[in-house]
User: Fold this.
Amino acid sequence: MAVKRMRGVGYLLATAGIGLILLPVAMGSMTGPDWLAKVPAKARAEKNPLAGKDSAAKAGRTLYVQYCAMCHGDNAQGQATFPSLHTAQVRNLTDGDIQWLLTNGSLAKGMPAWTALSVTQRWQLVSYIRSLPPIK
Ligand code: HEC
Assistant:
């Protein structure tokens, strides 16, 4: 009995420890990813010139499968350490934020820059991301 209770205490302490480690991670996700702080106001305010065009989202899907799915998953659901693109965090980004990220990457964190694609292709990717249904 006593041994069991001791184990229980150990478990509680371990859980609290993990909580303390995860707290800054949770707080980071509230303020957004590090790269977001680097986006200039002008870039943030840019609107997707292809917004509302189904053909743009379709073209974006084709590009997505070719260039992005290997990290973000076949349907952008995320995998391993690569974030889902269906999250509230992504929905809260402006079109301009996403274009900026695709242009500059977040290289230190493993997100490449996509300047090998044209600006139009990057807007098509923004259209595809905007077409994703919200899932957690
Ligand atoms: C080599 C793996 C890799 C590939 C390929 C990749 N990404 Fe990423 N992507 C990442 C990582 C890692 C992050 C997180 C970066 C950070 O938090 O700073 C990320 C972040 C993002 C985000 C922001 C997500 C968020 O929650 O803030 C978007 C949007 C995104 N990627 C879109 C794309 C698109 C579109 C493509 C294809 C053109 C692509 N990514 C290709 C690794 C990748």
The pocket of heme C is lined by residues 33-35, 67-68, 70-72, 82-83, 85, 87, 89-90, 98, 101-102, 106, 109-112, 114, 125, 129 (CB under 6 Å). The first helix runs from residue 2 to 31. Residues 35 and 109 are 9 Å apart (CA to CA). The mean pLDDT is 87.
